[in-house]
Automatic annotation (TrEMBL):
Membership in a protein family: Belongs to the PMEI family.
Keyword Signal (UniProt): yes
Residue ranges annotated for the Pectinesterase inhibitor domain, each copy included: 30-163
Name of the protein in question: Pectinesterase inhibitor domain-containing protein
Residues spanning the signal sequence: 1-32
Organism per entry: Eruca vesicaria subsp. sativa (Garden rocket)
Length: 167
């Protein structure tokens, strides 16, 4: 009789352990799927995924992407400043990158205040800023590293705007 009770107790313990492990595994898969689903909404998921590692909350993902974009824009701005005097398209990019930094800082402030409309307005302006820079190179038939950086920044800002619509 005691052997039977021990067998039943072990059986229940194994069943509970399997249920807990299954739950934990499914929650990890669900979290990964949610992260993937955030980036799957964007136009450039391969640029989104490294920026929102392990983040499943759209608000946090948007905030992290804004921060990364702002840092990348400041780096680009410092690089562009060295060449702005000799090239009109680069001078335009310098001005628009400066505007983009301002717009991104305000978008970050808006997301902290939970002002989604303001955040979307500032992010839209940043996307436009990067677009103006790229257009300047297209209009002057130039291709250089500044244009390539501007294209990448425009793509990331587009992703950022898309993530903001999920907030």
């Amino acid at each position: 009789m005691a052997g039977r009770d021990i067998f039943q107790l072990r059986f229940v313990a194994v069943a509970v352990s399997v249920a807990v492990l299954t739950f934990l595994a499914s929650s990890q898969v669900t979290e990964a799927a949610r992260m993937m689903s955030l980036c799957s909404h964007t136009a450039y998921p391969s640029l989104c995924q490294p920026l929102v590692k392990r983040i499943t909350n759209p608000r946090r993902a948007t905030h992290r992407t804004i921060q990364a974009l702002e840092a990348k824009t400041k780096q680009a701005l410092a690089e562009v400043a060295r060449y702005k005097d000799g090239n009109q398209a680069i001078a335009t990019c310098y001005a628009t990158f400066s505007d983009a930094v301002y717009n991104l800082a305000n978008a970050r402030k808006s997301i902290r205040k939970r002002d989604v409309l303001g955040m979307n307005t500032f992010l839209t302006a940043a996307v436009s800023d990067y677009g103006v820079c790229v257009e300047g190179f297209i209009d002057s038939n130039q291709v250089n590293t500044v244009q390539n950086v501007a294209v990448d920044l425009r793509k990331i800002s587009s992703n950022c705007l898309t993530l903001s619509t999920l907030v």
